[in-house]
Amino acid sequence: MEQDKVKVLLAEDDKNLGTILKAYLEAKGYPTTLCVNGQEAFDVYNKEAFDFCIIDIMMPVKDGFALTKEIRKTNKNIPIIFLTAKSMQEDKLKGFELGADDYITKPFSMEELLVRMKAILRRVKKDDFKKKGIFILGQFTFDYNRQILTLKNVEQKLTSKESELLKMLCENANEVLDRSIALNKIWYDDSYFNARSMDVYITKLRKYLKGDPNVELMNVHGVGFKLVII
Questions:
Q1: Burial of 61 from C-beta contacts in 10 A (0-12 / 13-18 / 19+)
Q2: Over the chain, what is the mean pLDDT?
Q3: Are residues 68 and 154 located together in one domain of the fold?
Q4: For residues 121 and 64, what is the distance between their CA atoms, to the nearest angstrom?
């Protein structure tokens, strides 16, 4: 999801804060629609397409919790950040139970809000890619379904086993992938012969990944392998 395509629905009954937030977000490249109560926000949400919601909890007509319930009935995945003057633990828990992605208490810095938005958008982007079998490894893009590893528009076609092994490494990025688990899942047997075969594939993958110094495929002695992405 590119930043210039992220359209924000901002529901905030404090017109001064809402106007300032809208101006700030739009200056940062996020087209923003401001609504001053929950019902207005829900009506606008039903008429237009949005990629992100910033919702104040305490609003007239329909509060933030009620608005979120209605939005989640139609879209379970759109990112939502709650704004509130309260710091009650119960409110935070209720917000997360309703499906909020994050929660920020007033007063807050706009820079902090933007950082939290970007973090959520990065996660959403990665989740969307993973559903499609696409993984981002530093400067590399790995398309599991097409069995292609791409760096700067240069494509490397992978074999089926290379793809299966790289997929497991990506799914366990920055964590140790147990050798026996990989062997049993991909080779269906953790015999000595298959272990040597896997070592050959690891060497090939390591060679393919040399193009980005921030990506390293490490051996973890006596345990397995670790795909480190800085």
A1: middle
A2: 90
A3: no
A4: 21
